[in-house]
């Protein structure tokens, strides 16, 4: 791949962005497939967001990823927001089509692809307990609900937020929203526990979002955290005979789906996984 005048520009805007593994992951994929694309990370302060987006349009970017804190506010500066992003209420990817900026969300679909390909489970058979009710929970909850899971119980520290998310998902599946005090009871009949909060994330790696004694061997425990790769929740689950699924695959597949939208090519996910595994060691 030559860094000449015809290189197609993609990237990431966020604040901060220096920790992001996406530039390594996506550039390795471009190189692997010999595509004339480049991906760079840009630290954009909230007050500069509008100018940054207009600048990227003017400079002829093909598309870019959007991360915290711009995932919601970026929508104000786009020409169109696809249904998935609108329903999740956040954009993680922008694609430029004939000068028009289109907002997409690949987080939910990326999560689902990771879950299904890495564990082999059938979403339609799952009774889900979703821990957390923030942005990540909205994306994952939407994807699971659309995939036809039997039921989603949202469990959250702030019960009203759990109820709000449950209400958003009830178009597609049976739902309820409860406080953390009901986690034990709700986990008894569950087959899939999805953990979307930051509890257990580096550096607080001994934290566990639910009492480990609630975990049982009938559960698949899916934790969105990827740093550390193995969270305390996952370790506790394994000890009790439950299966586990970590967050690296979601990071990989949300990127792979954005890549496909920008390039029209299926992303080289094995190469991308190797890069991420190395970067997250
Ligand atoms: P994100 O977009 O990453 O999901 P968010 O929108 O800030 O981030 O949501 C964070 C989620 O983690 C929320 O569900 C939050 O619970 P509250 O709604 O009660 O705030 C949850 N969370 C964060 N820290 C937590 C903690 N120490 N204990 C329990 N839940 C926590």
Automatic annotation (TrEMBL):
Keyword RNA-binding recorded: no
**The entry's keywords:** Amino-acid biosynthesis, Aromatic amino acid biosynthesis, NADP, Oxidoreductase
Q: Which GO terms describe its cellular component?
A: cytosol
Q: In which pathway does it act?
A: Aromatic compound metabolism; 3,4-dihydroxybenzoate biosynthesis; 3-dehydroquinate from D-quinate (NAD(+) route); Metabolic intermediate biosynthesis; chorismate biosynthesis; chorismate from D-erythrose 4-phosphate and phosphoenolpyruvate: step 4/7
Q: What is its EC number?
A: 1.1.1.25
- Gene3D superfamilies per the UniProt record, alphabetical: Leucine Dehydrogenase, chain A, domain 1, NAD(P)-binding Rossmann-like Domain
> Where do the catalytic residues lie?
71
Residue span(s) of domain Quinate/shikimate 5-dehydrogenase/glutamyl-tRNA reductase: 124-198
Which GO molecular function terms does the record list? NADP binding; quinate 3-dehydrogenase (NAD+) activity; shikimate 3-dehydrogenase (NAD+) activity; shikimate 3-dehydrogenase (NADP+) activity
Q: Which residues form the Shikimate dehydrogenase substrate binding N-terminal domain?
A: 12-94
Q: Could you tell me what reaction this enzyme catalyses?
A: shikimate + NAD(+) = 3-dehydroshikimate + NADH + H(+); L-quinate + NAD(+) = 3-dehydroquinate + NADH + H(+); shikimate + NADP(+) = 3-dehydroshikimate + NADPH + H(+)
Where, by residue number, does NADP(+) bind? 83, 132-136, 156-161, 224, 247
Which Gene Ontology biological process is one annotated for this entry? shikimate metabolic process
Q: Does the keyword Disulfide bond apply?
A: no
Q: Where does shikimate bind?
A: 20-22, 67, 92, 107, 226, 254
Q: The SDH C-terminal domain covers which part of the protein?
A: 247-276
Q: Which HAMAP family match?
A: Shikimate_DH_AroE (MF_00222)
| Cited function | Involved in the biosynthesis of the chorismate, which leads to the biosynthesis of aromatic amino acids. Catalyzes the reversible NADPH linked reduction of 3-dehydroshikimate (DHSA) to yield shikimate (SA).
Instruction: Describe the subunit structure.
Output: Homodimer.
Protein family membership: Belongs to the shikimate dehydrogenase family.
Q: What is this protein called?
A: Shikimate dehydrogenase (NADP(+))
Q: Which organism is it from?
A: Melghirimyces thermohalophilus
Tell me the classification of the organism that encodes this protein.
Bacteria, Bacillati, Bacillota, Bacilli, Bacillales
């Amino acid at each position: 791949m030559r860094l000449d005048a015809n290189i197609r520009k993609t990237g990431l805007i966020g604040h901060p962005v220096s920790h992001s593994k996406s530039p390594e992951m996506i550039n390795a994929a471009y190189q692997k497939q010999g595509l004339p694309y480049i991906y760079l990370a840009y630290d954009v302060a909230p007050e500069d967001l509008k100018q940054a987006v207009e600048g990227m349009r003017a400079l002829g970017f093909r598309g870019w990823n959007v991360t915290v804190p711009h995932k919601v506010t970026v929508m104000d500066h786009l020409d169109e927001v696809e249904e998935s992003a609108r329903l999740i209420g956040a954009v993680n990817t922008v694609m430029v089509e004939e000068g028009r900026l289109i907002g997409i969300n690949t987080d939910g679909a990326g999560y689902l692809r990771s879950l299904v390909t890495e564990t082999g489970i059938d979403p339609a058979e799952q009774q889900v307990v979703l821990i957390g009710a923030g942005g990540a929970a909205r994306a994952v909850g939407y994807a699971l609900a659309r995939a036809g899971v039997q039921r989603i119980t949202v469990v959250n520290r702030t019960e009203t937020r759990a109820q709000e998310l449950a209400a958003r998902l009830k178009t597609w599946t049976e739902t309820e929203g409860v406080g953390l005090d009901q986690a034990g009871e709700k986990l008894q009949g569950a087959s899939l526990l999805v953990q979307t909060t930051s509890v257990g994330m580096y550096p607080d790696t001994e934290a566990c979002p639910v009492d480990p004694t609630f975990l049982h061997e009938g559960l698949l425990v899916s934790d969105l955290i990827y740093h550390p790769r193995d969270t305390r929740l996952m370790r506790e689950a394994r000890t009790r005979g439950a299966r586990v699924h970590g967050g690296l695959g979601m990071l990989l597949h949300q990127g792979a789906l954005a890549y496909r939208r920008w390039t029209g090519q299926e992303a080289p996910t094995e190469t991308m996984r190797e890069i991420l595994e190395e970067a997250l060691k």
